[in-house]
Amino acid sequence: MDEVERYERYVGGSPEAERRVFQRLAGDLLRVQLKVKKRSGSPTLERTFHAKAVLGVENARLTFREDLPKALRAGFASPGAEYPVTVRLSNASGVRQPDSAPDLRGAALRVEVGSGETHDLLMTSFPVSHARDAREFVAFARAMAGADTRLRKGIALFVTLPLAVGWPTAVRMRRNVVAGTRRTVSSLALETYWSRGAILWGDAGPVRYQLRPVADAPAAPAAAPSDPDHLRRELSQRLRRTDVVFELCVQRYVDARRTSVEDGAAEWKEEDAPVVPVATLVVPRQDVDTAEARACASRVDQLAFNPWHTTEDFRPLGNLNRARKLAYEASSAHRAGLRFVTVEPRRNAVLGAPLRAAFRVVNRVVPWHRLPTPLGLLNLMAFRQTLRRENLIDTEAHEAPPRAEPAVDGPLSGELLVRRSYDGTFNDLSAPRMGAVGATFGRTMPPVYRPDRFDTPNPVTVSRELLQRDAFIPATSLNIIAAAWIQFQVHDWVKHRRLPVGVKSVEVPLPPGETWQNTPGGPRERVMRFGADEPVSGPGGERSPIVFASEVSHWWDGSEVYGGEHFTADRLREAGGGAALRLEDGHLPNGSGGGPLTGFADNWWLGLSAMHTLFAREHNTVCEALRREYPRMDEDRVYHTARLVVSALIAKIHTVEWTPAILATETLDIGMKTNWQGPPKKWLDQLGVWLLEANGRDGIPKTLPDHHGAPYSLTEEFVTVYRMHPLIPDDYELADHRFGRRLDTLSFTDLQGAAAEPLIRKTGLVNTLYSLGIAHPGAITLHNFPRTLQAFERDGEVIDLSVVDLVRTRRRGVPRYNDFRAGLHKPRIRRFEDLSSDPRTVARLRDVYRSVDDIDTVVGLFAENPPTGFGFSDTAFRVFILMASRRLQSDRFLTVDFRPEVYTPLGMDWVERNGMTSVILRHCPELAGILPRAASAFAPWRPVQPARNNSGRG
After folding, report:
1. Which stretches make up the Catalase core domain (predicted)?
2. Smaller CB count within 10 Å for the chain: N or C?
3. Percent of the chain with pLDDT strictly greater than 70
4. Using an 8 Å Cβ cutoff, are 547 and 535 in contact?
């Protein structure tokens, strides 16, 4: 690589900086594809360039010369070596037009060496590119997209292009284009094709290559301008009579001035770099008009040629070539329907900026939640645009600089197209690892990694003074099912990889005079100890201390019910590959260690057991309905379809029921329903979407997947704002749903871990849901952290979960509260009084923290006075604004593949008609008179009044 780097110069000074630039340019090229499609009226996407194939054959042969110079003998280039070659000859335009139209011509070769080794050689019929680099190349493509008339071409070349690149550059680009396209071409067999960019040729260093016709090639008749396909017809007639033969030649690098590697518009003149023939390409005599030949040409036309389909010894060089890796991959994936592009309507782009600026001014005086509902919704949409532009940070280690790889063409498995994988791979078919198990947590803002502040102030002191529950503070608008639900969801979304305590521990010093028992029955120690997060290894094996991977997929795929890998998923299904999930008398079967057999059983307690049991039963009911409706559907298809349906139903419940329950305002109720089904029919709501987010006018499930400029992932800040442990009460009363009589009173310790499954079997799902439905969770506020979670036994450890929350947030580089606010575009606080109006809280904050800038993120989020009706802070809500729609909009199975062909018509209807209330009543019909009539199932239920004589009879 060091040898290569002496020829190359990276945009932005580093391979990673250049990759980010090229990624944006690749997105621009995808929009060019869409524009060309729209202008041309084509029903399908074409190649961005070289759309019209003239010849496509798979039976050509490339033979290296016996007298190949020793300096050029490298890799597959050896004397006498012969290889099969696929050849595609084409017109260069991205628009299919008559062969007589001024145009460049192109040649693409795929040399099949064997053992997974291929080499794609791409050439055009002019020795230099019109563009020096990728930026100019894309600017030209954008200007010329859809320019299919003389007027449009004139406007593009003389107005649009100069505005994009400047007048001198536009003049040079026009000159090159005119020089390359002014000739009348009579036969593609008689054209010379140049590589333009350089490639490495083993130890020989950089070369440019060219394909030129042999000297004795038969002449062609004059072109027939009246025949739009005369080039294909000429080649067809030529190949019926004789072979078509070319020489493959190279020019070797001399120096940076005469043979530039980085400047694609600089010619390598033959007097400086002589042309050396190295091989002969023969397209054998054949009839290309038979049905077999046409099928072959169609296969060739579907291939994704890319100069990076090669080996490192022959890797492409230079700016244009490095950009081609991302650009060609994106373009071919887009053309094949594996990648999607959402074009923002012009009015949204034009109006978005002034509206965002206007609301920034308004919000200095009036926050969004105090505006009239239509304005509040418009405000939130504008702010979400800001967050999408500025608060999506990718943390994955990407390939930079590009690496060579063999071509892998062929259709994806049909199962991948219509089924969720277990580990989240292939949700985005063009980036299979995106969001999968092992993908890294992204960031909503730049991290702040300060090891010197890990223990300052002491997190144990923070917990005791500000978090610990003094007296239970209820959230009276919710029931405990809402608390169980969010943990049920979080287990589907996020799980950091953690190292065992014995491998690497986090040690938290205790305040003077305190000790802690880190293991059950273990010694008292002066430190708290728990397992550290496992950081991700980078490309070179180095570990970033603040980049972490998730052990569950980032997608909304029901992995907490179904498992996140094949082995677990199979264990959960009925024996013999049945579609249903295993249940024993309607309950989860026992797994190893006394816990339940389910997809995710960490931190198990009665509320989680109820959610898992309920949705395992729902899965089995969907399976029964699918079997009845589609008796010819096999069990594997039934299982995977039911899995899709239940996962989508869970996403819908969270979006349109749980969220409006915990953020109980009219604005949020409308906003979340708009996410799922589009805005209400009121003209003001419709107008807001038309102005800012027209692509969501029918709801996110009817849009295309959109990652908004950054690969999809959940973020460390998202994990932080979902630290909602105060929702958990310390004690519970179990009651009979028929008579309201008390069955038992238990502490949280009594209904968690191994105790949960025997308890739910004893109590029954109906009484369990009733008991959780009539009781309130805790409010998400200071001084309300469950005491039972402050000495919590888990996996052989005794931990204070409040301390763990504080420490992990600090060590993961999540900014402290004031920086967190600023990162989410809120004004910084200047005094402790700006955070809380409670004098007692302010006094404790002053005692614990030196300044407002030291306040822990979790503490600040809990201390805020939330908007009226909100169950958590406005600052936390800002992360939610961004991620709530992103979890839907990035997911193929909740957008473009949320359709009857994938889910079945029954499945689509099931998701449409059902919600949390109907799910509960389907499996617990006894609760029909108890569930709320005019509110969601997450609102408090009507308690049954016990009989006065307490006899158990109504």
Report:
1. 9-369
2. N
3. 97
4. yes
Q: What is the pLDDT of residue 685?
A: 67
> pLDDT digits over 305-355, tens only?
999 999 999 999 999 999 999 988 998 888 888 899 888 888 888 888 898
Integer CA distances (angstroms), 585 to 601, 683, 761, in order: 19, 52, 9
CA atoms within 13 A on the CB side of 954: 7
Residue 806 Cα distances to 491, 817, 857, angstroms: 19, 12, 8
- Per-residue buried b or exposed e for 282-292, using 16+ beta carbons within 10 Å of the residue's own CB: bbeebebeeee
Question: What three-state secondary structure class fits 279?
Answer: strand
Q: In which residue are the tokens 């449409």 written? A: 912
**CA nearest to 610, candidates 279, 234, 927:** 927
3-state secondary structure 647-698: HHHHHHHHHHHHHHHHECCHHHHHHHHHHHHCCCCCHHHHHHHHHHCHHHCC
**Residue 849: CB partners within 8 Å, gap ≥ 6?**
457, 832, 855
Taking the C-alpha atoms of residue 418 and residue 637, their distance in angstroms, rounded to an integer, is: 10
491 is catalytic: yes
Rounded to 5 degrees, φ, ψ at 746 are -135, 150
| 649 within 8 A of 339, measured Cβ to Cβ | no
Instruction: Tell me what pLDDT residue 954 has.
Output: 37
| CA–CA dist 462, 472 (Å, integer) | 19
Torsion sign (Cα): 896, 899, 902, 903: positive
Three-class DSSP category at 299: helix
Q: How many CA atoms lie within 13 A of 18 on its CB side?
A: 22
Burial of 168 (0-12, 13-18, 19+ CB in 10 A): exposed
3-state secondary structure at position 278: strand
Six-digit token string for 190: 């008689």
The phi and psi torsions of 443 (rounded to 5 degrees) equal -135, 145
Confidence of residue 113 (pLDDT cuts 50, 70, 90): very high
First-to-last alpha carbon distance for the chain, in angstroms, is: 83
Q: Would you call the peptide bond into 401 cis, given omega within 30 degrees of 0 as the criterion?
A: yes
Non-local CB neighbours of 353 within 8 Å, separated by 6+ positions? none
Spatial separation of the C-alpha atoms in residues 379 and 659, rounded to whole Å? 19
Active-site choice (50, 491, 554, 923): 491
Domains of the chain: 2-335 (2.40.180.10)
Distances (CA, A) of 105 to 189, 193, 372, 871, 877: 11, 8, 60, 63, 55
Q: What is the pLDDT of residues 458-486, one digit of tens each?
A: 999 999 999 999 999 999 999 999 999 99
d(CA 641, CA 345): 35
Q: How many CB atoms lie within 10 A of CB 100?
A: 16
Question: How far apart, in whole angstroms, are the C-alpha atoms of residue 618 and residue 922?
Answer: 8
Please tell me the distance from the alpha carbon of residue 751 to that of residue 730, in angstroms, as a whole number.
10
What mean pLDDT, rounded, does the chain reach?
Answer: 92
DSSP string, 328-350: HHHHHHHHTTSS--PPPPHHHHH
Q: Residue 543 pLDDT > 80, yes or no?
A: no
Distance from C-alpha of 486 to C-alpha of 611, rounded to nearest angstrom: 10
